[in-house]
Amino acid sequence: MTNPWRGEVALTLDGVKHDCRLTLGALAELEASLKTGTLIELVERFEGQQFSTRDVLAVIVAGLRGGGWSGGGQDLLSAEINGGPLEAARVAAELLVRAFALPEEAQT
What we know:
Elements: E1 9-13, E2 16-20, H1 24-33, H2 39-47, H3 53-66, H4 73-76, H5 84-99
Antiparallel strand pairs: 1-2
Helix pairs in contact: 1-3, 3-5
C-alpha cells in the first residue's frame, strides 16, 4: 500500500503497481542525471509548468529506483505507463512535492 508519510506515489508500469519515492540517494542520482541546473531549478520548472519530458523521465526513474526498482531510463522507453504521459507528469510532480513537504501539506 502506498504510504504518503514516506513520500510514496503509486505508478503502474506494464500492469504492475510500483511505489515510487525520492529518497536522499534517489535525489542525489536525480541531480547527477540533470543536464543543467539544480533540484531547486527542476522544482521551479514543474511549478511553472515549464518541465520537459526529459525532466519527467528523470524524476520517474529516480522515484522508481528510490522505491526499489532496479531499472533505468532505457527500460521506460517501451514500458506502458497506466495513464500515459499525463499520468507520468502528475506522478513526477507529486513525487517532488512529497519529497519536500509534509504529507498534510502535499495533499492534492
